[in-house]
From TrEMBL:
One GO location term (cellular component): Cajal body
CDD domains with a match to the protein in the record: AdoMet_MTases (cd02440)
Protein's recorded name: Trimethylguanosine synthase
UniProt entry keywords in alphabetical sequence: Methyltransferase, Transferase
Pfam families in UniProt: Methyltransf_15
Family: Belongs to the methyltransferase superfamily. Trimethylguanosine synthase family.
InterPro entries per the UniProt record, alphabetical: RNA_cap_Gua-N2-MeTrfase, SAM-dependent_MTases_sf
Catalytic activity, reaction form: a 5'-end (N(2),N(7)-dimethyl 5'-triphosphoguanosine)-ribonucleoside in snRNA + S-adenosyl-L-methionine = a 5'-end (N(2),N(2),N(7)-trimethyl 5'-triphosphoguanosine)-ribonucleoside in snRNA + S-adenosyl-L-homocysteine + H(+); a 5'-end (N(7)-methyl 5'-triphosphoguanosine)-ribonucleoside in snRNA + S-adenosyl-L-methionine = a 5'-end (N(2),N(7)-dimethyl 5'-triphosphoguanosine)-ribonucleoside in snRNA + S-adenosyl-L-homocysteine + H(+); a 5'-end (N(2),N(7)-dimethyl 5'-triphosphoguanosine)-ribonucleoside in snoRNA + S-adenosyl-L-methionine = a 5'-end (N(2),N(2),N(7)-trimethyl 5'-triphosphoguanosine)-ribonucleoside in snoRNA + S-adenosyl-L-homocysteine + H(+); a 5'-end (N(7)-methyl 5'-triphosphoguanosine)-ribonucleoside in snoRNA + S-adenosyl-L-methionine = a 5'-end (N(2),N(7)-dimethyl 5'-triphosphoguanosine)-ribonucleoside in snoRNA + S-adenosyl-L-homocysteine + H(+)
GO molecular function, one term: RNA cap trimethylguanosine synthase activity
C-alpha cells in the first residue's frame, strides 16, 4: 500500500485530501480486490494520469466517464427545460457530477457526499476536469440535507440524481436484483426522499423492473435506459417524473 500524506488545502469550501485518498500509479500498490478496476482506470477517467484520486472503496461505485457523459446527455434530453438545478445525492468520487458539470446544462449543481475523504477526492477530480467551481459541495448525509432544505428546493426547477451504494460487489450474483432489500438504502427510502421532485436513479442492470414501474406517478411513465460499455450493460437509469 502506497503511503499518502494528508494534503491541506486552505481554499474556502475545499475538503483536504486524506490518507484514504490515493492516486495509484503502480499495480503493486493497489489492493488485490480493486486491481481489476484500476486496470480499467483510463476507461473510468480519461484524465487519470493528471492525478485522479480515489479512496479504495470509491473504485467499486464510480461511474465510468463514457457512461456518466451519456447519462448527463440523456437526463437533459428527458427533463423539461424549466429544470435548472441538479442535486447529486451520492456524489462519490465525482464520476457523475463532473459529467453533469461538463455538460453545461445546469445553472446550479449540488453534490452531496457523506464521506469526507471521498468528497475530497471528488473535488480534487473536478478540479482536474476544470469544473470544481461550478459545483456546490456538501459533506453531509443526503437524506438529512434533503429533509432540512425542503423549503428551499423548488421541485419545478430541480432534478435529483441518485447513484446509491448497491450493497457491495455481491449484487452481480442476483438474477433479478431486489430493490426493496438494496442496502443500506432501499428504493422506497430513496424515492421517498425525493418525493415530488423529478429523479434519475442509477441502479444495477438486473434491477427488478416491476419494482421500478411501481414508482411511476399516476398517469406518467418511467423511462428505463440500460448503459453499456464494450457490449455489456453496466447499469440502468430509471428516469422518474415527479408526482404532482
Ligand atoms: C455508488 S457511490 C457514488 C458514485 C458516484 N456516482 C461516482 O460516479 O463517483 C455511492 C456514494 O454514496 C455515499 N453515501 C452513502 N450514503 C450516503 C448518504 N446518506 N449521504 C451522502 N452520501 C452517501 C458513499 O460514501 C459513496 O461514496
Amino acid at each position: 500500500m502506497e503511503a499518502t500524506e494528508s494534503v491541506m488545502d486552505d481554499r474556502p469550501n475545499r475538503f483536504p485530501l486524506t490518507n484514504e485518498c490515493h492516486h495509484y500509479t503502480r499495480r503493486q500498490d493497489v489492493d488485490w480486490d480493486i486491481q481489476k478496476y484500476w486496470a480499467q482506470r483510463y476507461s473510468i477517467w480519461s484524465l487519470y494520469d493528471e492525478g485522479i484520486h480515489m479512496t479504495d472503496d470509491a473504485w467499486f461505485g464510480v461511474t465510468p466517464e463514457p457512461i456518466a457523459n451519456k447519462v448527463a446527455e440523456d437526463l437533459r434530453g428527458l427533463v423539461p427545460s424549466s429544470k435548472s438545478v441538479l442535486i447529486d445525492m451520492f456524489a462519490g468520487a465525482g464520476g457523475n457530477v463532473i459529467a453533469f458539470a461538463l455538460s453545461e446544462q445546469w445553472s446550479t449543481i449540488i453534490a452531496i457526499e457523506k464521506d469526507p475523504s471521498v468528497i475530497a477526492c471528488a473535488q480534487h477530480n473536478a478540479e482536474i476536469y476544470g469544473v470544481v467551481d461550478q459545483i456546490t459541495w456538501i459533506n453531509d448525509d443526503s437524506f438529512s440535507y434533503l429533509s432540512n432544505n425542503l423549503s428551499s428546493i423548488d421541485p419545478t426547477k430541480t432534478v435529483v440524481f441518485a447513484s446509491p451504494p448497491w450493497g457491495g460487489p455481491g449484487y452481480t450474483s442476483d438474477e433479478i436484483f431486489n430493490l426493496h432489500t438494496m442496502a443500506p438504502y432501499s428504493i422506497k427510502q430513496i424515492h421517498e426522499a425525493c418525493k415530488g421532485i423529478y429523479s434519475a436513479l442509477f441502479l444495477p442492470r438486473t434491477s427488478d423492473l416491476r419494482q421500478i414501474a411501481k414508482l411511476a406517478p399516476e398517469g406518467k411513465k418511467v423511462e428505463v435506459v440500460q448503459y453499456c460499455m464494450e457490449g455489456a450493460s453496466k447499469a440502468l437509469v430509471a428516469y422518474i417524473p415527479a408526482a404532482v
